[in-house]
Each structure stands twice: as structure tokens, then as C-alpha cells.
Queue: 2 jobs
Job 1
Amino acid sequence: MARGDDDFIAFAQASSSRLQRAAYLLTGDAHQAEEAAQATLVRVYAAWGRVRRKDPYVYARTVLTNLVTDQWRRPMREYATETMPERQTPQDVGDVVSKRRWLIGVLQGLSPRERAVVVLRHFFDASEAEVARELDLPAGTVKSLNSRALAKLRITALRTETEAGVGL
Amino acid sequence: MTHLDELKDAMHSPPDFLPAPLDLQQVMTSGGRLRRRRRFAVAGASALTVAALLIGGSQLAGVGGRADSNPVAAPSAPLPSAGDSSKPEPVPSAGNSSAPGIIGTIVETGRQAEDRRWILYMETSDPHHLDRSLTLILGRTTTGFIDDFDPEITASDPGDGRLAPGFHAVRGGLQLAGRSTPTFGYYVGDAARITARDSATGRTVEAERAPWSSYGGETEAQIFWFDFTEGQTPARFTDISAYDAAGTRLHVHG
């Protein structure tokens, strides 16, 4: 076993579920999520000597995002919908699972860019500047994509966080 | 309306999704190979820089040109084509040694992406226990040299039984980093046909198959894949099935 393998195994075991969830949010497909998380860890291991003393989780996040979102860097049309499905009926809204399912469904109906911004900002808690750098987008674009996505998700915290000085 | 924390909770516990245990041994095997290849590439680039300084740039004009315009060396072990699967070429591998790594037949799919040909091959981290270590790799190559194999998707069953009769390591087609990948896997048994149903059209499609063997035929399987086209969204398949020459359905589960 190579030097540092124990550290990598500990890192991989601690982060694989989270990486798979993020990949699932980005792809909407459990199988693709598993493959993307595995491919991400392969690349993290390949660079382990370089990244282990920095922040391997941030490196893994960047690799995963690049793997999944690489296709929308190429010229392509995004098929985002402006019309989101209606919310669940009132009796279902109280059901946490039902509401989570609705939110994930709406998330997966966002454009790839919107979805990537939401996942990076609110799943990984990356800063706006980090998201802009990792997605190679202007900060203003990240801000507007995030606002538009949260509006589609009918998030009410937008005003509150902005007033509190937390950029969205 | 929804609070941001509810979205965060939903993203951290998405219903209908359960993370799968990943094969960390395979991750480290593939990652180690990737690391070695990168080092080799860096060393090669450094050597080329030194050569350019020593020899002079004009004498290196051919470097970086089209590979087929001035070939330096032929692949040490030509890959069998998909259409020539009846005559698999043995390649340097762990098949004749106890070293971990690529083992047995290398299969070409006949497709390529960005000038690199899609190939399918097996790896093992423990040649003495293939039944629990055999892993199928979808990769790409330009030269056909093993050190040029670029793994894209690693597929394996968890635990033991990887050589039990039936299907193994089946993976669906993806759009991965902008490239289309096929649905592929391997089958242990005497299948004369492998088919699946295209979930979009309902049509039954037959897979391409290539024999795979190691240790001089001691261990055998069939690597299969469904035809795919670069740039197109891969088809979704269901009802994958294997049939013998008489048309009888064979084992489905590995």
C-alpha cells in the first residue's frame, strides 16, 4: 500500500456518499451518480500527493463538477423550462418526503447551469466567487443563475439572506 | 413557498436515492495508473523540451504532426477489431504472470471519440482471485499501447462471484464529460446472442460480442456492448437477455 493510502481511504469513505448525492443532484440518475463519484475519486487518488495537504474535498468537488458539467461548456442548447410543476396538494405539503421529492424534481428540471450553481452554492456551500471560478462563469452570471433557480424552487430565503449581507 | 434550509435538507437527503458502496480498491488501482501515466507524460514532455534545446526546433518539426504521417513505432500488440472478435489477440497482461493489472483480451468497439478509440478490457488487483477482483474497464486509446489506455468507466460487481454464470458489471450508456459511452458488460456462459430492449423505441437490439479469455483460455467470458454513436444521447436498455444457439434463454443474473 502506497504512502498516504490510509488517508485516502479515510477520505474516500467519508466523502463518497456526499459526492454521490451531489452527482445525483447534478445528473438526476443514480447510476450516473455512482460512476461520476467513482471517476472523481480515481482522479483524486491520482493527485493525492498534491492535494492531501490542501483541501481534497474542494478538489473532489471541482473534479466532480467538471466531469458532470463538461458537456454544457460545449455549444449546445439548454432545455430549461420556465414552467415548474405545481406544488403538491396541501395535504402532501406537510409530508417532508413528499416535499423533498418535489424539490428534487424541480431541481432536476432546471437548466444544467442553474442546477450546477444551486448544487455548488447550497449543497457544497461554495462561495459565489468559488462557483464562478469552478464553472468558469462571470460572478454576475452566477448570481443571476442562482436567483432564477431559487425563484423556480420558490425559495423564500432570498430576501432574508440578501438583507443579511449574504450574497446568493 | 419554501425555505432555503428545506432545499438544503432535500439535497442532502434526496428521496429515492441511496448512495452505493464504491469499490475503493478499484479506485486506487485506476487512480494509481492515471498517476503513473501523468508522470510518464510529464517526463516525456520534459525529455522533448531537452531534445528540442539540444537538437534545435527545426529538426523536430515532425514531432506533434499526424501520427499516421510519420509513424515512429507500431503498437506492440495490435488490438482485435470488433468485427474480428473471433480472433482475439493476446496482449501483454497479467494473464501470464501474477502481477495485477490488465488481464486477457483487449476488445475494440469500433467507435472512437476525439481521435481515441473506445476499448473494453479487464483488470484485476489480484490475479489469483479473479472471482472477486475482475473488473471491466471502458477506456480509450490512440496507440493501442497499454500505457496509453485511458480508463473512463470502471465496472465491477461487489464481492465474489464475478465469474459465476450470467451477466456482470453491466453499465448503462452515459454522456460522460461530453462523450457518449455505450451500455456494456460481460457475460459468463455460452451465449450465442445477447439482446436488450430499447426503452424509447421498444425495439429489441442485439449486442456486439467479443470473446475474452485469460490464462490461455482457462478463464473465459464474453465482453458485450450495444452500438452507440458519438454525440448522440445513449439509448436506455431494459430486459437484457442471453440466448444459446438454440434460442433458449440463459442465465440472467451473475
Job 2
Amino acid sequence: MKLISAIIKPHVLDDVRDELAKAGVQGLTVTEVKGFGRQKGHTEIYRGAEYTVDFVPKMKLETVVADDLVEAATAAITRAARTGSIGDGKVFVSDMGQAIRIRTGEAGDEAL
Amino acid sequence: MSKTRLHSTGRRIALMLPALLLAPALASAQDVSQEMFTVNNTWMLVATFLVFIMHLGFACLESGLTRAKNTVNILFKNTSIIAIGLLTYAFVGFNLMYPGDFSIGQFFGFAGMGLDPGPEGNTVAYADGAYTYWTDFIFQGMFAATAATIVSGAVAERIKLGAFMVFTTIYVAFIYPIAGSWKWGAGWLDQMGFYDFAGSTLVHSVGGWAALAGIIVLGPRIGKYLADGKIRPVAGHSMPLATIGVFLLWLGWYGFNGGSVLSADPELVSLVFVTTSLAAAGGIVGAMGASWTFQKKPDLSMVLNGSLAGLVGITAGADTVSVNASILIGLVAGVIVVLSVLAFDRAKIDDPVGALSVHLVCGIWGTLAVGLFSTNPEHSFVTQLIGVAAYGAFCFVAAFIIFLALKATMGIRVDPEEERIGLDVAEHGMESYGGFSITHS
């Protein structure tokens, strides 16, 4: 199984969730984060003082899927989250050692 | 009608005797009817609780314009201020502000501790049927607390709670009412012809001078002014709260100015409602123009300050300037407040909520504006200026000394670590938002 993490723009979340459901992904965790990549920040001004805001609000998605679902899931995220403008984000795939369903105690792919 | 009154128990008794003797003959001609007395007094009590709601306004505004990690502390200070204000006013403040007879020149007088309406205090005779003694006390008491709360925003996010409360107690108990007696208590400035309808000087600048002294003695917040001369913005955490606060303050101002007519006089109260509202509107427009021009983008916090600036500006002369003048006074105040905020920051005077710009600078402007725009020929710019200078000298020096004394004894500033963690956790062991963190990065 793999952990898929994605940093996406907040406003594409609904589309990504729909595409992932179509791809057969059952579970998802979402966190509100701030960050930047190569996208520069912007300037804000408060009571006369200008300052650069480096961190841009983003959504972080995490889902653990069976190995055979990884390609469909990453494709779904990329398809739904792409706007074409800078700051679209990234998808990360890493190995996940174990998963356990708390209610039933199932482990491995059955827990996903 | 000015707020000057000459109440004291001794004076009332002295005046009572001839009145009692002549009462049957004079009753119908001189006395206001019981109905009018009730109308006047009722309006004054409505004005009282309108001024009261300004404390909620200040609490919201100050919270909104400061960081979430200090919100409990701000709210705590605001809650304690109304208590300190009302209690000290009951014990000593009222009778310092309206001593009746002065004992040191026309600068200082004291009509005794505690409240005592006397036999006539709650009758038509007390204030020509305008209000009762109790109304007089509680209406004025709400003003006293308002002056104190101006300081709390200016010293926010770094003052020690205990030191602040000690300062407030001393300042509101003694400095505010003694200074106030010079005009509203019929002291020397009143006799000179100085005019302050509802307190641009007596309330707003008295609070403002103390705020300035506090900011100077305290120093700026950590990280606000960088070594290379840059100003780091320390953003407020809730613009909605700040906005709610400002509109509550505006609402309260109808009582603040409307009640300062000291009766329900239809012409004067309605005129004051109009000048007050138009000055606030002018303030918003002035601040909007200045902010949009000098800051490239229209800044909500500046526009909010602008409305208050207009309100403070009209407070000295709401009953004695024309409607057009009130708009102009507001407009100028709106521009001044924006420029002041920028200027104070450039001078490294850290004022988190703009209290100095709104209350001190525009309080002075409003007072001088009476000299420029009053329809009453007895008001003069020079007299207004003398008043401004006198209050400035007295209040600033007094506040400065108190703050220095507190700094030397109990300390007035929290530790840098406490300031970084936030006063909610450091001073109160509490969080404002249930553990949810609202930070700006």
C-alpha cells in the first residue's frame, strides 16, 4: 500500500474528491495548510506597513490506497487539481507500512 | 448647553432656603413639570446605557485589531476597566469632578467621599428638571470608564495586567475627574470660556495623553520595528470583530453626545444626532480617501478608525457648529487619523489600535475646531488652544510619572518570552479560541 499526499489549491478540493471517488478511492483526509513552492508570495499592506506574504493557503490531501490503485488515484488528483496557473501543487507517493481498521481490527489491504 | 454644573451638598442646602421660602410663589413659573422631568431624565438614562455599550465596542475593536493570543487579556482589561471606573467614580471621582466649591484656586475641589443625593437630589430642583442626582452620577460615571479604556488598546499585547489595573485606578480616580473639574466642574477653564461639549478633550484627549505616556514608557512590541528601520506589521486577528466594535461605539456615541445636551431638549438633541452622524460619515470618507491615496489599497482598519476620528472630532462642538462644519470636521479628522497612524509608526511609537491617532490627535483637532467653527462668538481658538495645552501638560505628565513609578516598582512590561507566547496563556493560563490557533504568517 502507498500513502498519497497532495498539496492542492483550496478551491479544487471538491473536484478532486469527486474524481477520486470515481477512481474507487474510499477514504480521504484533508488539512488546511500554508506553503510555497516556486510560486512567489504576494505583497500585503497593513496600516501603512508593506510586507511579503510567502505562505499561500493550500489544502493537503492524504489517502492510503492499495498498490494497484495508485496510478488511477494520482491521475485523478492531477486531472482534477490542474488549473494551468502557477501554484497548482504536487502529488507525493510514499510507501505505507501497515493499515489497521480500528472498528474491526482488519489489517493490510482489507483495512483500506 | 454645556455640561458645567455646580453641585455639592453644601451649596444645595444654601440655595434651598430661599427657594423653600418662596416656593409657593415661584412653583408654577420656575419649576419644570413632573412630566418634562420624567422625559428629560428618561432620555438621560437611555443615553447612559448607550455610553455603557461603548465598552463592548472597545472590547470588540481592541480584540479585533490585536493578535488572538492576547484576546483574553484584552477582554479582561476591558471588563476590569468598567468596574474600576464606576467604583472610583462613586467613591471619589464624581465629587472631584463636580466639587461645587474649589479649595485650591479653581483647580481642585472635593465634595466629599461617596454619593449623597441630599433631600433635593432626586427632585425637579436638582438640575432644573433635567435629571436626578443618581442619573447625573451614573451618566457621568460611564464617561469616566470610557476615558480609561482608551489606554488599554494603546498598551495592548505587552503591558502587565496588574500594573495596568493600578495605573487605571489612580488615573481614573484622580487625574480624570480633577482635570474634568476645570471645565465641567466650573473650574478655571470654564471661567475662561473654554468649551468642550461632550469631551473631545476631557475624555478623549485625557485618555489619549495617558495612552501616549504608556506607549513611550512601555516601548514597542517585540519585532514591530526592525533594526534596519523597517516597520513590521502586526496584524489584527479579526476584522469582523473590529467592525462590530466600531459600530457599537458609533451607536454609543448617540448617547455620548446626545446625552451631553443634559436634557431631552428636542432641538439640541436632534441637532447633535445630526452633527454626530455626519461627522462620522465625513470621517469615513476622509480616511477612505487618505488610505486609498497613501496606501494604494483601501484599508478597512483605517476606515474604521476614520469613523471614530470623525466622532471624536465632533464631540467638542456637536451642539455649536453648523451641519456643514460637522461634515468638514469629520472629513479632516478622517484624513488626520490616517496620517497620524502612519506618522506614529514612523516615529516608532507603537499603537496597536490607533488609539493615539483617534482619541488624542482628533480629540485635539475637535477641540480646536470649536474655536474655528463654533457659531457661538464667545468661543475662541486661543482659549481652546490654552485648554488643549493645559490638559496636555497635566495629563501627560501625570500619566508619565505614574507609569514610571510603576515601572520602577512592580514593572509594567511582561517578559519577552511571555510576550511571544501570548498574554492569554502567560498571564491568564487561558486560551481565547478553545485551543484553535489563529496566527498570521
